[in-house]
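FW: tagging you since you asked about this chain on Friday. Here's the raw sequence from the shared folder, copied in full. Didn't touch anything.
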Amino acid sequence: MTTNYTVNYTTNYLVAAIADRIQAEEAMVSLRREDIPDRSTALLGAGFQSLEEYKLPDPIQKTWNRLRWTATWLTPFGFLGGMGFNLVTGLNTFPWAGDVGNVLIGGTLGAIGGAMGSVFASDGLMVVLTGKRSMTYRQRLDQGQFLVVVKGSEAMIRRATKALLKYETLSLESYPE
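HL: got it, structure written out here
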């Protein structure tokens, strides 16, 4: 009897933003003490690797891109759907607007629904609600902060999180690749 096992090795990122260069270097040493291999860690910032060299995917930027893409498609389809719904049902919700005006208002309301749908379909609700407070990795590096990055399995990320919690991090984020 042969048993086939499927093992799912997901790669995760842990990114800690640290304001002080000395603390960032100490955090890297702490990661080595936790037996996290050097090939799984990186220090990004002035004097170290750049964002372009490491190719770190920015989850906030990816969400904004996905939001724009879904809005590009869902808003026009919502407009057409709203117009179609109004034409099929023959609703005369706004008598002052006339037949053509009601169809256009229906299309406008459909477009608004499509735009709202794009926010939910792209997981963009938190980015939209907190977008001005959330900083992208590029903005953090431009402000002189340092990013300590760990890339590895969930177990490695847990060990790295434990090691990095000892430092004053401005943010500590974990997400799948």
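FW: DSSP finds seven helices and four strands in the chain.
HL: agreed, and The first strand starts at residue 12 and ends at 18.
FW: great, closing this out.
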